[in-house]
Amino acid sequence: MQWQDEAIIIGVKRHGETSVIAELMTRDRGRHLGMVRSGRSRSMQPVLQPGNRVEAVWRARLDEHLGEFKLEPLHLRAARLMETATAVYGVQAMGALLRLLPERDPHPHLFEALDVILDTMDDPADAGELFVRFELAVLNDLGFGLDLAECAATGVRQDLIYVSPKSGRAVCGAAGAPYADRLLPLPPFLGEGAGTAANRETMAAAFRLTGFFLHRHVYEPRGLTESTAREGFVHAALKALSVAAIDTGARQTG
Length: 254
Prior knowledge:
There is one protein chain. The chain has 254 residues and is α+β, with helices and mostly antiparallel strands. It is built from 7 helices and 8 strands; from the N terminus they run βββββααααββαβαα. It has helices at 78-81, 85-98, 108-118, 124-141, 173-176, 200-222, 228-253; strands spanning 2-15, 19-26, 30-36, 53-59, 68-75, 160-163, 170-172, 184-185. The strands form 2 sheets. Strands 3-2-1-4-5 form a 5-stranded antiparallel sheet. Strands 7-6-8 form a 3-stranded antiparallel sheet. The longest helix is centred in the last third of the chain and has 26 residues, at 228-253. The protein is elongated, with a radius of gyration of 20 Å.
């Protein structure tokens, strides 16, 4: 058995004295593991860093075997990803999300999204928005997608400001007002066709929204806990947005 595919490294574990087990998110074959012989060598260590994009050739006698990878670097961005807290935590948090999906289950759109987000991790505002949308995409692929396009009660597509914690569907202001204390806020930047940018308040609400449904539908039923990397990413992204808001206010009053 042999195949070749583009992939992004999301994790590496030691295997024996000189080899490693590499965990890749491939474009067409989903999350896939394989052994890399001499993966701990000086030449391979810079390649085998989370976030790097590689060309992977996988070989095994049978499809169900672990197999071996031969990797060639395509885009080595791991060094840049170590420059900010959002990037350090972000690449780990997205790897943890991908591990919620079955191994070798194709999700090409998640590969594309991961690649784009990793290239924007140095901008906390963009990284935060894209990360939340990545979580929404993972929820959808797990079968728990949210419907934020129209009101669950009336079918209207305007004034969508709530999300039902039971159905995961949007609710408009008029229909949701009597139950506002039991509904989750829908951040404006996540609305259908939204043109508003996120700020610290709406970004925090977005993290709470996706976190709620991940806990309810995925972590709690599986007996899992949220990754510490997500907590670190949320803290770093919100802190960066707070600093950006202060700097913007200072420039406007200066």
